Amino acid sequence: MAEKIILLPGDGIGPEVTEQARLVLEKAGAKAGLSFEFEEELIGGCSIDAHGTPLREEVIEKCRGSRSVLLGAVGGPKWDDMPVDVRPEKGLLAIRKALGLFANLRPAQVMPALVNASALRPEIVEGVDMLVVRELTGGIYFGEPRGRSGEKGNRSAVNAMVYDEHEVARITRVAFEQARLRRHHVTHVHKANVLDVSQLWMEVVDEVAKEYPDVELAHQLVDSCAMLLVQEPKRFDVIVTGNLFGDILSDEAAMITGSLGMLPSASLAEGGFGLFEPVHGSAPDIAGKDLANPLAAIQSAAMLLETAFGAKEAAGAIRKAVTDVLDAGHRSGDLILPGESRETVGCKRMGELVLEALA
Ligand code: IPM
Ligand code: MN
């Protein structure tokens, strides 16, 4: 029986990279005895244009009725002047909330072939392998009160960082479980010298940590964590943190590996249902030009196979194919260093190369 996957390509480069990811997912899945039935829906700016809203209730329902969701990216200059509540990004926030996708896993690994693509020195980035576990459905992204008031000359705005202990405990457990599959180390990132919310996180993380005596825990202030990430990224195994800090630090972690264009992510609900998407955005400047790097989307497909279907081998085969393509010297534009003379591989060709390497 075919497994239902909802594709939400979204805006900008979303459609091009999602298409390559779909082809790779199909091929790698078939090898694992899986067949998929894909259904495509709108999210973000394209949904605003077609339906006046970034995410329709019926799309959420379709996702609920599926095995997994593969998403591209949302947003673009066309919708940049719109108020936050009707912007493309709101579609992404709404789907995370509606599907209860509280656990966002963002692995950042430096591939040997890309050691020189990082802005940091090779000896600093070589061997970096970390996982940012970002809380995704709470914190300042969703807290109340929120909004703007007053007229010009008297304007103010408020957002609130709100967490309850249940939310902190469940994301902390995800982080510790992940650490058990890796190097048994968790860094909790916070701002407890200023924020009450962070003090609650400290307490709850410490309590949960007692359930995992085999995993080492460190607490790190977010500002010094930002510094340590570029100074000594190898010290990190699993990082667990709230929504806003996780958003910022995962971009930083991604850049350490060479390009935001490489990093996949999984957003999981209790019970394991997941949405998979590249960490990068819609890159409107290169959209539709066949210049995007599809490898983050393709590796998101690998995470989908592994997480939603337990197809570890198929996921590993995708990762190996990606590594092989890079080892053979193929590079999309984002991976080419200034001054380096290499032929740029387009989005579609990069997808083909991965498919060939899978064969
Ligand atoms: C991300 C993105 C989103 C976020 C935006 C597009 C709403 O930056 O997934 O990291 O802030 O969560
Ligand atoms: Mn982000």
Structure description:
There is one protein chain. With 359 residues, the protein is α/β, with parallel strands linked by helices. The chain folds into two domains: 1-114 and 258-359, Isopropylmalate Dehydrogenase, CATH 3.40.718; 138-147 and 154-256, Rossmann fold. The protein has helices spanning 14-31, 45-51, 57-64, 88-98, 122-125, 165-180, 196-209, 222-231, 243-256, 295-309, 312-327, 347-358; strands at 3-10, 36-40, 68-73, 103-109, 129-135, 147-149, 156-158, 185-190, 216-221, 238-241, 264-268, 274-278. The strands form two sheets. It has a ten-stranded mixed β-sheet with strand order 2-1-3-12-11-4-5-10-8-9, with helices on both faces. Strands 6-7 form a two-stranded antiparallel ribbon. Helix 7 links the parallel strand 8 and strand 9 (216-221). The model has no long low-confidence stretch (mean pLDDT 96). The structure holds 3-isopropylmalic acid (IPM) and manganese (II) ion (MN). 3-isopropylmalic acid binds next to helix 4.
Give a summary of the structure in a few sentences.
The chain is α/β, with parallel strands linked by helices and 359 residues long. It contains 12 helices and 12 strands.
Largest sheet: 10 strands, mixed
Overall number of domains: 2
Number of strands: 12
Quickly give the structural class: alpha/beta
Task: Characterize the overall form.
Answer: globular
The average pLDDT score comes to 96
List the defining traits of the structure above.
359 residues, alpha/beta, Isopropylmalate Dehydrogenase, Rossmann fold, 18% strand, binds 3-isopropylmalic acid, binds manganese (II) ion
